[in-house]
Amino acid sequence: MTYGTKLSLTPKYEPGQAESLTYEWSSSADSIVSVRAGQGGLGEAQALRVGDAIIYLKGYKSGDKDKKILLTATCKISVTPRTAIFGVPHFKKGESKTTLTSLGVGTMDNDQSTDKLLVYTRTPDAVNGVDKIIFELDDSNKLVATYAYLQDTPNNREKATQYIEERFKYTGKTVGSLTLYDAGVSSMYASGTMAALFLGTDPGNGIPGLGIKFW
After folding, report:
1. Euclidean distance between CA atoms 134 and 100, whole angstroms
2. Residue 85 resides in a domain
3. In the prediction, which pLDDT does 30 show?
4. Which one, out of 2, 105, 190, 196, has a CA that is 20 to 30 A from the CA of 90?
5. How far apart are CA 65 and CA 43, in angstroms?
């Protein structure tokens, strides 16, 4: 499924069984794929975030107060993004400076780099539109945040907004000009990873632009 789409799910059953069974649908990850019962025993799945979810189906005889399960089934649904911009920017909290400098993410910008900021420039391509990567380090030279920058164009603003909406959960919280999103349970980012979109503003490192901060 593509992010934002819906899909009808049809249970498999024996001839004549459909009319006598009531079906219950559930998802292993409601924040990624939600599911509800539709008409005629069908399930309706909706893709809410990029990732994977297992859909569970239980069927029991209509009117049975004990709900004795007569049918079970599962299926896996993978949600794909609308945009591949950014790819998956490198962010692993606590990564060492030595490891970060060996990744080859771009050309070191010695004029902008400091003891706490490793600034790399790169040539954007059709898949990954990032033109600058910044790694922010703590006093122990460990990674605390990654900043992925794009050229500030209307198209890139739209794609950056789509990227964060597709992969993170809106928290309703803000820090300065940043609106916070949480990775939650995600196959792409470690649990607890936060992200924020910055649109031509300073994301907290003193270098304004368009992009996403991961921490």
Report:
1. 10
2. no
3. 92
4. 2
5. 22
Is the same domain home to 134 and 31?
A: no
Task: Name, in order, each residue with C-beta under 8 angstroms of 86's C-beta and a sequence gap of 6 or more.
Answer: 128, 129, 130, 148, 160, 163, 212
- pLDDT at position 143 is 96
- Residue 40 banded pLDDT, cuts 50, 70, 90: confident
Query: Rounded to whole angstroms, how far apart are CA atoms 114 and 112?
Result: 7
Measured at the alpha carbon of residue 79, what is the angle toward residues 91 and 149, in degrees to the nearest 5? Answer: 35
Average pLDDT over residues 148-172: 90
Dump strand ranges (E) for 91-141.
Answer: 107-108, 117-121, 130-137
121-to-14, 21, 163 alpha-carbon distances in Å: 61, 60, 21
Per the CB < 8 A criterion, the answer to whether 95 and 142 are in contact is yes
Please say whether the beta carbons of 160 and 196 come within 8 A: no
Decide if 107 contacts 120 (C-beta within 8 A). Answer: yes
- 124 or 107, which is more confident: 107
Tell me, yes or no, whether 89 lies in a domain.
Answer: no
Element (H, E) at 196: strand 194-201
- Does 157 reside within a domain? yes
Q: What percent of the chain has pLDDT over 90?
A: 54
Residue 67 structural domain:
6-79
Buried (b) or exposed (e) across 83-95, using 16+ Cβ within 10 A?
bebbeebbbeeeb
- Residue 1 in any domain: the answer is no
Clarify whether residues 101 and 162 are in a common domain: yes
